């Protein structure tokens, strides 16, 4: 079953939703809002350290940075790092954390 990351447009909380066929749309577990955005491209990080996946993650992070979305980039890298357990992705996430702190 596919796991999808959703972001609450109300409180910014990001969480995973297991989407089952025919089920109602999820609501935010933090504030209960149904105003959600599905974060596409995040699901299906299944193979740890898959090189093509790491490349996709890097591109996505760069896309965020191009738009100046540091927070989104950092959050995405964090999620990707925890889902892929890839050292390379973890380093990207760490680097973003250092930059957002500075
Ligand atoms: Zn919320």
Tell me the distance between the termini: 40 Å
- Strand content of the residues, in percent? 5-15%
List the helices and strands in order: EEEHHH
Which strands sit side by side, in order, in the main sheet?
Answer: 2-1-3
The 3D shape can be described as: globular
Q: What is the average per-residue confidence, as pLDDT, rounded to a whole number?
A: 80
- If helices are DSSP runs of H or I spanning 4 or more residues, what is the number of helices? 3
Q: How many domains is the backbone divided into?
A: 2
Q: Give unreliable regions as ranges.
A: none
Major pleated sheet: 3 strands, antiparallel
Q: Indicate the structural class.
A: alpha+beta
| Helix content class | 40-55%
């Amino acid at each position: 079953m596919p796991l999808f990351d959703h972001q609450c447009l109300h409180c910014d909380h990001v969480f995973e939703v297991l989407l089952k066929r025919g089920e109602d749309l999820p609501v935010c577990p933090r504030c209960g809002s149904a105003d959600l955005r599905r974060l596409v491209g995040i699901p299906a990080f299944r193979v740890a350290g898959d090189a093509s996946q790491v490349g996709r993650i890097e591109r996505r992070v760069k896309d965020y940075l191009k738009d100046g979305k540091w927070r989104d980039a950092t959050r995405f890298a964090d999620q990707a790092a925890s889902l892929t357990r890839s050292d390379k992705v973890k380093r990207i996430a760490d680097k973003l954390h250092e930059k957002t702190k500075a």
